[in-house]
Amino acid sequence: MAGSHSGVTEVVDDVYTWPPSAKTDEEIAHDVRVAIRAEHRLARPERIQVVVRSGEVWLEGTVESVSERMYAVEAAKTVSWVTAVVDDIVIAPSAA
Question: How many structural domains is the chain composed of?
Fold first, then answer.
């Protein structure tokens, strides 16, 4: 390219980009667990397990209603670097 413009003998590329550093799967899993525990509409957030692979989050465990399952999934989606959420949560109403 330098030779195609009169008087230009060299092109120096000094442009660098640094993407923000991505979180590890372990960091994402921690953040998702924190977000789920902070969701006050979940009766027993400790019953939800979180597995992360390459930014994809799998939620497993049990909740008492469809609404609670939705709250858990939505909480997981709010975490940065989550690329997808797979909902494997089972609805198991408590025997009251």
Answer: 1
* Residue 46: DSSP 8-state: G
CATH of the domain at 68: 3.30.1340
Q: Which domain covers residue 31, as residue numbers?
A: 22-91
Predicted pLDDT of residue 69: 98
> What are the average pLDDT values for consecutive 10-residue runs of the chain, which has 96 residues?
70 68 91 98 97 96 97 97 97 76
36-54 pLDDT, tens digit each? 999 999 999 999 999 999 9
User: Cα–Cα distance between 25 and 3 in angstroms, integer?
Assistant: 47
- Compute the distance between CA of residue 89 and CA of residue 76 in angstroms, rounded to an integer: 13
In degrees and rounded to multiples of 5, residue 85 shows phi and psi of: -125, 125
What is the token pair recorded at 86? 């797979």
